[in-house]
Design goal:
The relative contact order is 0.17. The mean pLDDT is about 90. By secondary structure, this protein is an all-alpha fold. The N and C termini lie far apart (about 35 Å). It has a single domain, classed as Alpha Horseshoe (Leucine-rich Repeat Variant). It is about 75% helix and about 0% strand.
């Protein structure tokens, strides 16, 4: 799946500038892509605490994702940010 590979590649960069593209991919129809996006945004938030306020709404919305694995990942990452 191309989107999943894109998210993983972007996540490997760990660069704040990629967050707009990741936010766009957070709405993907595939749960595996959404989960990887959440994981990547969580990692970026850990490395760059100054942008957590921008990322928090995306992770909070993901806690209500219909796919349990996506919502669980979002909850786990938000707890790590505390």
């Amino acid at each position: 799946m191309v989107q999943l590979r894109v998210v993983r590649a972007l996540g490997a960069c760990g660069v704040v500038a990629i967050t707009p593209k990741l936010v766009e991919l957070a709405k993907d129809s595939e749960a595996s892509v959404r989960k990887e996006v959440i994981r990547t945004l969580g990692k970026i938030g850990l490395e760059h605490p100054e942008i957590r306020d921008q990322l928090r709404p995306i992770l909070e919305a993901a806690t209500k994702d219909g796919q349990q694995s996506v919502s669980d990942e979002a909850v786990r990452l938000l707890k790590r940010w505390l």
